[in-house]
Structure formats: structure tokens, C-alpha cells
Amino acid sequence: VGSGSAVSLSRQVQGTGGSSAVSKCSAAARGYIQDRFLRLLAGRRRRRAPLIHRGYYIRARAVDHCVQHFLLKTQSLPRTQILSLGAGFDSLYFRLKDLGLLHHTVVYEVDFPDVACQKATLIKGMKELSALVGDSGGEGLGAIAFSGEDYKLLGVDLSELSELERTLEEAGLNKEIPTLFMAEVVLTYMENSRSDALIEWAAEHFPQACFLVYEQVQPGDAFGRVMQRHFLQLGTALQALALYPDCRAQHRRFLAKGWTECSVMDMNEFFTCCIPEDEQQRVQTLEPFDEYEEWHLKCSHYFVLAASKGMEPPWTPLLPSVTAPCWAGPAVAGSVPAVCAGLSAAPGLRRYGHHSAPVQPHVILTTGGFGEEDGQHCRVRGFHVLRRRAGSWESVCVALNTPDPRWGERLYHTVTCLSDTLALVVGGRTSPSSAGLGMLWLKFPKSCNAAGPGDVAVEVGSVQPAAEAALLRWRHSTTEITFKGEQFLFVYGGRSALQPVLGDWHFLHTPELSCTAIAVEGPVPESRHSHSACSWQGGVLIAGGLGAAEQPLASVFLLRELEGGFQWQTIETHPPLVPRYSHTAHVHEGKLLLVGGVWFHASSVPGITVIDLMTGLCLDYVIDVEHLEWPLMLHNHSSVFLPDEKELLVIGGGGNCFSFGTHLNPEPVVLSLSSILISP
User: Where are the transmembrane segments (predicted)?
Assistant: First the structure.
């Protein structure tokens, strides 16, 4: 790397550190992190979104968990030291010092010279910081920017290993005492040969040592591709991912570089297994939140690693306090090809959290969601109709007859077609802090497919009587069922502004939309939202969803009709269904098809799962995206099954990918299922 390129790269990497400090400060201000020093070191302040708060909470929690475990295990020893690599404007030293945890520990921080000098100036200029460090002396000696009794701040490029070693010796680092190395999103910015050399040097030269790493993983799926693109655009490519793309590769890396013990967790596993349940609940209720998919995807793309050598007793901070759920990935039965549906000129279909419903033969109505409208990202007001003519799809943008405030720019609602001119909207939301929205009628022409491009209009109508308060929800399901020859809509699950997960249900008698009491027997399914629901044999199939503890569910239930009511019946699958949520589902010839979704199995993403409802056989198929030029995200999407063609039309999907930007699938995709739905 030329000197000019190296300087440019160092500035870009420094920028990521500054942004992280601001995000941590925002998380602390909302109560996620207890740290009064972040605001002093972050410089500028900016309120971040709840998803960012959760992301930086889990990062801080994982690092603190491992650091405090090291200090606890070594508290009886006379001297220990912590070496924070790429420390940036982190407040670790001040937080530990304030808690009285550094009686026999010296903290060394290393970062680029510019960063070290800025931080040293901040410390000297703030009494709250300088009082904790005490008298300084020795700065100005080479790369030592600040030197206190138990705190040393050094300005060195980590990729220059010989210079790093020389500066650490000058600052007093002792290779013979237990040492914790920390690298919090640092090593991945270095050339792999240099980061490998640093890991190996630490193992070779420190007989009693621990190494803590937190950084990115899983570059190959859709979220990983968006993540990589974000860092490439910043000029800070994630270089470690090429050689070490997953947790297993990182585990092998440290063992190969001289470390004798190593454990790794992605952040979904860490949150579930290492954070007490009451603390999980505290974090989940700090502020209104409804971005579960992106939270879990972010957590599956970051890991924490703890390696050690020569430590007695062993350093094992990542031993789970609870047994991890079985997140083993499924055995793959085959693949399903994905091709574009030829609708690239339909930007109004770039959305998520919407609903698509067949309203007439070869006519699909898409409503609501968040996406692109008039060149901006916003809650989408406009409706879209897809029509199939001569074997190809065409898109028609449909405006409401008049702007209608009753529509409410809603997300996570349901739309059920009750006739060839009438559909019912149930629930949905604007903001997750607002009450759910009520029911509406959607009225449309009888011959949408025959009309010209400007002739399709949708009219919004009020439901009389007004919707009951119990139906004000989102992320629920609404399914057509039959009872004693009468038609009902079965509204189940979801969540509301007051209840993060619901487990109740309601029978809506369709002629007058009144709630009807019908007896239901059997074991009641646990509360859930973001599940799937399909009509089958007059009843309802419920699959997956997100449960009360924000954990994906694997259960499949059938609500089947009895003489005097209904009964919940569990459908056993083998092998067991991998827990998931935010998928879509369809039934075809006795088989339940689950499409996409989010699960905690980090090494792959959900594709198509086929469950034989007679035998319980569960087969998983990956989606082959070779012919797509963009990442395909199969969550928050909608899908329509075309039985004659044995095809699935996937519309929309995507989400706000943590701090990496919003991804919207650019156009609808066709999944051909003919090879996996072979009729007997």
C-alpha cells in the first residue's frame, strides 16, 4: 500500500470509530448502557434509531461481559494488564476505574496517532476524566500520547508490528503477566497477513494471555452483501471476511496461530445464552421497537470470540448460562431457481411490510408498506395492481380515488379478498408507538384485467360498525375459514402498541363483520406474531412466528373444525422444522410451503420449506440466486402462489439493514417450484 493510500485508509477507519462513539453515546442516553463517560468522549451528539441502540448495546454488553470475566478470574493475581487495539474514543478505562475494578490492572490503548492525540487532549481538558487518570507524565516520548499510573495511550499504526512492539515496551507493557488483548471491530480493517501476524505475535510473546474479538461475519448472504457494500463505499473494506467468513473459520484461525482455547458465538446466541432473562426483558421494553428482522440479522452477522493460552484457571467467558436452542441448519434437499419477473420498471413494488393479495384471476393488489414513492423512502400510500397478460406480468400504479386519511399509510396489515370487487383490510400500523389501525373496505372494478392502464381505481370505504378495539393490531394473520357452512375470517396473533406479542383470536362473521364466539378446544399455541396462516380443509394452518421472548418458533398448528367448534391440533414435522418468522406460506395438494423468513441459523438463510401435511416430512430447498444481480432478501415480503404454473411470485421484501442502509428488493421474482411439487 502506498503512503497516500495508507493515510486515506487510516482516515476512513478513524471515521468509523467516531461514528461508533456517537452511537454508543446515544444508546447510553436511552438507558441501554450505563456509562456516564461516553458523552465526554464522543464529541458530537446525535439521536440514533432504536435498531442502532440495540446493536450497540449487544456490542458493549459482549465486550464488557468478557472484560469483567477476565478481571474476576485474575483478581487474586498481583498484576494484570489490558491492551485495547484500535481503542478509538472508547470509555473502557474510565468505566472500569470508576467501578473500582483496576486495583492491579494497567490499561494500554493503541490507535492511530491522530486519534490518540485527540483523545489525550480531551482527557487533559476535562476534569471528570483527568481526575480519574491522575497525574500524567511521560507523554511526548515517541508515540506515547498520554501516560498515567494505570493508563497509557499510544499512537501507533497496528499494521506496523515492529513499531507497535517497540512502543509497548517503551510504555512499560510486561509480557510476563496475564494480558487481555481486545480488538473491537479492528482486525477486519487490516490486511489479513498483518492481522494474522498480530494474533500470532500475541500468542508467541505472552505466556499467559487472552484475546477478545468482536467483528463482522457471514458476507455471502443478502444482508452480508449489503453490509460489505456499505463498508466498501466508506473505503474501509472488511478484509477478514475473504479468509474467515464464519465463526468456525475464526475459531480455526486462532487455534492455528498459537492459542490453545477458543470459543465463538454470534450475537443471537450471546443474547440468548449469556444475558439474563430479566436484562433481556429490560432492553426489549426501553423504547418502541418493530424491526425484529433487522435486529436478528445484524446479530447473526457479528460475533464475539474469546481465545486464551496459559491461563489458570481457564478463561471461559462464553460458556452459556442457559442451554442454547438447537439452531442446526436443515439438510438441503435441493434448490429452487429465482429469476426476475420482468418488472424492473415498477419502482412502486420496491417496498416491505406490505401485503399482496390475489383479487381476481391473474390480478394481484399490493397495498401499504415502506418503500419508494416519488423518489423518496417513506410509508407508501399508493396501491399497485399486477396483471398477467399473454404469459407476462405488467404493473399498474393505482392511486386512491381521493386521498383518504382512513388508509393511514399502514404497514404489517392484512388484506382478504371477499368477492371479485371487495377486499377487507384488517389492522396495520403507522408508527410502532401508535395504536393499531382499524378495518377498511377496498372496492375495485369487476374487470381489472380487462381495463386499460388508467382505468383501475381503488376506493376506500369505512366498515360499519367500527372495528372492535381487540382487532387493532399488526403482524397478525387473517384467514378465511368455514364453520357450519358459514364463512368467517379468523384473526390471530400479532402485536399492538401495548402488547409486544398477542396470542388471542377472533372469528369475524363475514357478512356483517361481527365477532362471533365459537368454542375452541385443545392446547393453545403460544403467543406469536410475524407467523404464517393458510386456509386448509375449512380450518387454518399456523406456522412459525416470533414468540414472547423474541425467539423464533418452530411449531405448526392446525385449527380444525369439529361439530360444535374448533380444535387446536399440533402437526409434528420430521426432521423438526427450523424455527423462523417473517416468512410467507401457501398450501398446495396437501403440502405446506414456507417461503423465506428469518431464523437464527447463521450459515444459511431460509429458502423454501415443504411440509407434507399427511406424513409430516419436512424438506428444505435453497433458493438459487445465481441469475439475480442484486441481493434477494426474503423477509417482510409478500408472495402469491400460481398453482397452474407451479410458480411463486415474490413481491417486495427487505428492510433497514442496521447502519448499512435500507435495502429494497428492486423487482418481483419468480420461483419455479415444478421440480419440487411433483404430483404423485
Answer: none
Phi, psi of 423 (to 5 degrees): -135, 155
**pLDDT for res 543:** 98
CA dist., res. 494 & res. 305, Å (int): 36
Domain range 2-18+68-309, CATH class: alpha beta
Q: Are 223 and 297 in contact (CB under 8 A)?
A: yes
What is the spatial distance between Cα 425 and Cα 441, in angstroms, rounded to a whole number? 6
Q: What is the CA radius of gyration of the chain?
A: 28
Let me know if 18 is exposed, middle or buried by CB neighbors in 10 A (0-12, 13-18, 19+). middle
Give me the residues paired with residue 180 across strands.
82, 210
Domain with CATH 3.40.50.150 in the chain: 2-18+68-309
**Which DSSP category does 189 fall into?**
G
- Residue 435: other Cβ atoms inside 10 A: 14
Query: What are phi and psi for residue 98, nearest 5 degrees?
Result: -65, -30
When pLDDT is averaged across residues 414-443 and rounded to a whole number, the result is 91
Distance CA 503, CA 492 (A): 7
- The residues with which 265 forms a beta bridge, in sequence order, are 304
Residues of the chain with CATH 2.120.10.80: 333-672
Q: Report d(CA 367, CA 457) in Å as an integer.
A: 13
Which overall architecture, per CATH, does domain 333-672 show? 6 Propeller (2.120)
**Mode of pairing for the β-strands spanning 179-184 and 80-85:** parallel
* Distance separating alpha carbons of residues 266 and 211, to the nearest angstrom: 16
* Alpha carbon separation from 252 to 189, 249, 328 (Å, rounded): 20, 5, 19
Unique residue bearing C-alpha cell 443474547: 271
Place of cell 495511550: 153
**Separation of CA 328 from chain center:** 18
The grid cell for 150 is 494505570
Among 96-110, 309-323, 444-458, top mean pLDDT goes to: 96-110
Exposure string over 362-392, b if 16+ CB within 10 A, otherwise e: ebbbbbbbbbbbeeeeebbbbbbbbbbeeee
- Cell digits of residue 302: 457479528
Strands 669-672, 565-570: pairing is unpaired
Strands (E), 11-167: 80-85, 105-111, 144-147, 151-155
Percent of the chain with pLDDT over 90: 74
Best CA proximity match to 445, nearest among 462, 461, 457, 463: 457
pTM of the model: 0.94
Bond preceding residue 337 cis, omega within 30 of 0: no
Q: What angle do CA 475, 217, 262 make, to 5 degrees?
A: 120
